[in-house]
Structure to design on (187 residues):
């Protein structure tokens, strides 16, 4: 009788432990339902001047990329990128690039829009070798994601002041231009 009570106790303890473990695993793998989605906002293209190589700094290797201008176009706005958007880019010791960009857009109807963004570029060995040979980096070829923020005083485009956006980037052959597809985050 004592054995059967002890066996029952051990069985219940093991069953409780397994149930707790299963519940913990289920909680870790739970699928979260979200209404968040992305809506295409625009494509932004800018021509790059040769970089200014600042060299090795405490946080990595700094290069400054200045654009000579470009264009942007989407369903709700289009125009030109004024000369001078600049990327104060740092490639960390881990090989991860960190863009830090500020620039100005001018819409076709004359409004000015300030844009700034930061993000990540996680380079692969293959992509680095491709760029070294003068190749292009396509969307999705490396992990390249930024989060643009827009500011404007123009009432027609004031909605840009209150949206969150994400973008994926790519580089033209030999790094002569940069392009981003920018998406508004909706929920």
């Amino acid at each position: 009788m004592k054995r059967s009570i002890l066996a029952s106790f051990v069985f219940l303890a093991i069953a409780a432990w397994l149930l707790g473990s299963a519940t913990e695993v289920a909680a870790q793998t739970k699928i979260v339902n979200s209404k968040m989605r992305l809506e295409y906002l625009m494509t932004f293209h800018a021509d790059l001047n040769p970089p200014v190589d600042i060299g090795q700094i405490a946080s990595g290797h700094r290069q400054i990329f200045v654009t000579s201008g470009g264009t942007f176009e989407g369903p709700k706005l289009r125009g030109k990128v004024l000369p001078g958007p600049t990327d104060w880019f740092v490639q960390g010791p881990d090989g991860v690039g960190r863009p830090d960009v500020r620039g100005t857009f001018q819409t076709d109807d004359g409004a000015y829009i300030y844009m700034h963004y930061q993000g990540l570029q996680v380079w692969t060995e293959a992509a680095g070798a491709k760029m070294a040979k003068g190749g292009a980096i396509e969307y999705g070829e490396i992990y390249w994601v930024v989060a643009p923020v827009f500011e404007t005083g123009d009432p027609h485009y004031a909605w840009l002041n209150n949206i969150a956006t994400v973008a994926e980037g790519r580089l033209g052959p030999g790094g002569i231009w940069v392009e981003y597809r920018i998406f508004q985050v909706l929920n």
Q: What stands out?
A: The first strand starts at residue 37 and ends at 48. Residues 2-28 form the longest helix (27 residues).
